[in-house]
Amino acid sequence: MSSSEEKLSAYLDGALPERDMREIEEALARDPVLQAELETLMAADQYAQAEFAKMLNDPVPIGLSAAINAASGAGVANDPQAPGRSRWALAAVASVCLAIGGAGGFVASLSGGDAPPPRGWLADIADYHGIYARQTRHLVEVPAAEADHIRTWLSASIGAEVPIPDLMAQNLTFQGARLVVAAGKPVAQLMYTDAGGTVVALCLIRTDTPQQGFATRSIGGWDMVTWGGTDANFVIVGPQGRSDLPSIAEAAATQV
Amino acid sequence: MSAQMKRELTTLLPRLRRFSRTLTRSAPEADDLVQEACLRALSRSNQWDASQPLDRWLFRILRNLWISELRKRGVRTGAGEVPAEESPELVSPDTGEASVAVSELHGHVAALPPELSSVLLAVSVEGYSYAEAAELFEIPVGTVMSRLHRARKALGARITQTKDMDA
C-alpha cells in the first residue's frame, strides 16, 4: 500500500499538512478514480461509525456497575488483599457472588461483610440530580428525539417497563434520558425542563416491593415525590421549594 | 473524588466496553478488562489529573492492562516476552466462540483485526488526533495513518462484496 493511498485516508481526517491537503484536492479534481477511492473510504468510515454506535446499545451487565460501586477508593492500593487478587479471578469471584446473592451479596462479599448499610437509592438520585441538573449541553445521554430507543434501551437495562410520561400540561418538556446506578441497581432517569431551563427528573427503579401511595421528602437540597407502580418505584426530583412537584408526580403516575 | 469518579465511570461504561471489545474481540474478556480498569482507576484516583478527560485516562489504563495481559499469556504459552504488537493474539483474528458472537453482532467492523479496529475507533469515533492515537497505542504516527487506511480499505471491500452478494 503506497503512502499516497494512505494520504487519502489522512485527507479524510484533515490530518495532513496544508500543502499535502491542497495537493490531494488538486488530484481529486482531475482524477475520477481517486474520487471513487475517496468515496469508498468515506462510505467505510460512515459504516464503521454506525457499527460502533450500535455497540453502545448493548446492555451493561449489572455486575460491572455493582463492582464499581462496591470498590474502595484510593486506599484499596494499600489493602493487603488487593495485590493477591488476580484480575480475571476477581471477575470470576464477582460473577459467582452475583449468582449466589445478587448485587447485595456481591457488595458484601467484596467488603468482607463489614460494609456500612447501603444508602437508599433516593440519596444516590439526589447526588445525580445535583450534578446533571447543572448540565446544559450534556444534560442527557440519549436525546428525546430517540424516544422509542430510550424506552427499549432503558426497559431492557433496568428490567421493568420504562414509559415516558407527557408532562407538557405541567409545562415540562422531555429532553431525553440517562441510565444511572443507584444503590447498586440500574435506574432510568428521564429529564424534563421547564420554560426557564429548570430540570425536573423522573427516575424509576425495578423492585419486587413497590411503595404504596405517595410520599414527599427532601434529600440533599432536592425535593422528591415518590410512589410505586407494578414492578418499579418512581420519584420526581426537583429544586427544593418547588410547589408543583406533587401535581407533576400525580400526572406522571397516571401515565406509568 | 471517589464517589464522583464512580458515577463518571458508570456513565462511561458503554464506551469503555466498546473500546475493550475492539482490543479483546471477546465480550466476556472485554467486560473483565473494563472491570479491572475501573477498579485500577479507583484505586489510583489520586494519580488522575482532573484537568484531563477521565475517558482518555481510562482508555490508556485499558490498553495498558490488555497489553500486559497479552505479554503474560505470551510467556505462559512459551512464546517468551514478545513485543505486544507482535503478539499473535493482538494481530490475528480470534476464532473463539465469543468473538464469533461479537462479529455476528457487529458486522464487518468486529471482523477487523484488533490493531485496525481499535485505531479506527479511537480516531474516527472517539476523536483522537493521529498524534494522540500514536501515543495511546505506542506506535508511530505513520503507523496510525497506515492502519486507518487499511481498516477503511478492508471495510470498503467487505461492504462492496456484501452488496454484490445481495444484488
Please sum up the structure shown.
Chain A is of the alpha+beta class and 256 residues long. Chain A contains eight helices and seven strands. About 15% of the residues of chain B have low confidence.
Question: What labels would you give this structure?
Answer:
heterodimer, A: 256 residues, alpha+beta, 7-stranded antiparallel sheet, 8 helices, elongated, B: 167 residues, mainly alpha, globular
Structural account:
The complex is a heterodimer of chains A (about 260) and B (about 170). By secondary structure, chain A is of the alpha+beta class. In chain A, strands 1-2-3-4-7-6-5 form a 7-stranded antiparallel sheet, sandwiched between helices. The relative contact order of chain A is 0.09. The radius of gyration of chain A is 24 Å and the shape is elongated. In chain A, about 45% of the residues lie in helices and about 20% in strands. In chain A, helix 2 packs across helix 3 and helix 4 packs across helix 5. Chain B is an all-alpha fold and about 170 residues long. Chain B is about 75% helix and about 0% strand. Chain B contains 8 helices and no strands. In chain B, helix 1 runs antiparallel to helix 2, helix 2 packs across helix 3 and helix 6 packs across helix 8. The longest helix of chain B is centred in the last third of the chain and has 26 residues. Chain B starts with a helix and ends with a helix. The interface between A and B is large, with 53 and 54 residues.
